[in-house]
Amino acid sequence: MNLAFLFTRKISLKTWIDTGLFGREKLIYEKMIEDKFCSKVYWFTYGVDDHKYQKKLCTGIKVISMSKVFNSKVGIYIYSILLPFIHFKILSSVQMVKTNQMEGSWTAVLIKLLYGCKFYLRTGYTWSQLLEKSEKGSKLYKLSKIIEKVAYIYCDMASVSSFHNQVYLQANYSFNFKKLFVLGNFIDTQLFSSSKPILKRDQESLLYIGRLNHEKNLKPLIESIANLNLKLDIYGAGDQEKMLKSYTKELDASIIFHGLVANEKLVDIYNSHKYYILCSHAEGMPKTLIEAMSCACICLGTDVEGINELIIDNKNGFLAFGVSTNDISLVIKRALSCKETKEISKEARKLIHNSFSLDAVYQLEKSKIQECLS
Questions:
Q1: Strand runs (DSSP E) across the chain, as ranges?
Q2: Are residues 116 and 218 in the same domain?
Q3: What's the pLDDT at 73?
Q4: Is the model's pLDDT at 347 over the cut of 80?
Q5: What are the φ/ψ torsions at residue 309 (nearest 5 degrees)?
Q6: What is the Cα–Cα distance from 333 to 56, expressed in whole angstroms?
Q7: What percentage of the chain exceeds 90 in pLDDT?
Q8: pLDDT (average), residues 32-42
Q9: How many structural domains are present in the chain?
Q10: What is the pTM of this model?
Q11: In what side-by-side order are the strands of the sheet with 40-44?
């Protein structure tokens, strides 16, 4: 089988590399080639120089960069429509086109209609569901609903990363739900493992890894850290970075902002901390939480969709039953006072190994693709 994989609109391969995603995201496609399930996998990106990273990939994966003539805000939209026509030689040879997210899914619809291949709609989060929490009624929210409706009607198979995404889609759209299944975010559980003894981990400093934006609810976390006189290591970047650093100074909190690191370097960071915290307003299926649980960290999270599909309170982690500073402070104190952390970390690792390993996710996706093609 030849597979065309479409990057999310606006996202380049360079973006993946700069944000540390590349090492993780390439694994499943390299496995497709290694397993001889795919002869060729074509990566269609929105970067103009992405072909120069070709050497970082195995032989069966081919990077197709965007032409420089489209390298503008309007140009990217135009390219997303013209792509099926520009690359007709390649696309006429593929048996399936797969998306990475909903944005740009219209390109896959056009490819399916033009070349008759199967359309696999993969999303890591549900676009309109995320916008519903903050921008309901906006033009972007209304547009996302239209795009989703069209994509789910035309796709031959579709996966979402969590059960709450599935429930939302079933409540909001009318299409054949037999083609929809839940495919969790995968990680390399052999790489992300508790390679260092728990006694050597930092017992006093909590860890957060992820985007620094509104939905991650980091301001109340910073307040909690300051109030409890604890330490926090933050890895990541985002539009709230400047504000959060300023707020940290204002509260004189013991927080260090480390910036972005490559995904493969995160293993040592997880293993150097005992506690990991994710206090978001909303999540799809958070990969950093999956990685932290796989490394047997004691994980704390807010009781919101996505997080509560992974953390079972007092069994494999701890849940704050709200997103306020007080709620976050209470769950931190509860976790720090727990004496049965060894069993909790063991249960966390067990869940991830059984359901979110690269092999488990790959085998499920492979079987669904085979079923679709046949």
A1: 2-6, 40-44, 61-64, 96-99, 118-122, 157-160, 180-182, 202-209, 231-235, 254-259, 273-278, 298-302, 318-320
A2: no
A3: 93
A4: yes
A5: -85, -15
A6: 44
A7: 83
A8: 97
A9: 2
A10: 0.83
A11: 61-64, 40-44, 2-6, 96-99, 118-122, 157-160, 180-182
Q: How far is it, in rounded angstroms, from Cα 256 to Cα 237?
A: 13
* Cα distances (Å, whole numbers) of residue 323 to 30, 57, 210: 39, 41, 17
Euclidean distance between the first and final Cα of the chain, in Å?
A: 12
Dump the DSSP string for 238-295. Answer: -TTHHHHHHHHHHHT-EEEEEE---GGGHHHHHHTEEEEEE--S--SS-HHHHHHHHT
The mean predicted confidence, pLDDT, of the chain is 94
Nearest to 344 by CA among 291, 281, 275: 275
Residues 309 and 224 in one domain: yes
Residues 95 and 155 in one domain: yes
CA distance 79 to 130: 26
How far apart are the C-alpha atoms of 133 and 276, rounded to whole Å? Answer: 25
| Predicted local distance difference test score (pLDDT) of residue 64 | 98
Cα 336–chain centre separation: 28
Q: DSSP letter at 357?
A: B
Nearby residues of 92 by Cβ (< 8 Å), 6 or more positions away: 115
pLDDT in tens, 331-346: 999 999 998 899 999 9
**For the segment 133-154, what is each residue's pLDDT rounded down to a tens digit?**
778 889 999 999 999 999 999 9
Nearest CA among 370, 371, 369 for reference residue 122: 369
Q: Is 47 exposed, middle or buried (0-12, 13-18, 19+ CB in 10 A)?
A: buried
* Token output for 173: 């759209």
Contacts of 168 (CB under 8 A, 6+ apart): 126, 129
Q: What is the pLDDT of residues 80-108, one digit of tens each?
A: 999 999 999 999 999 999 999 999 999 99
The total of other beta-carbon atoms located within 10 Å of residue 174's CB is 9
* pLDDT score for 52: 96
Q: What is the CATH number of the domain that holds 335?
A: 3.40.50.2000
Residue 366 structural domain? 2-186+357-373
pLDDT at 197 over 60: no
pLDDT digits (tens, 9 = 90+) for 105-116: 999 999 999 999
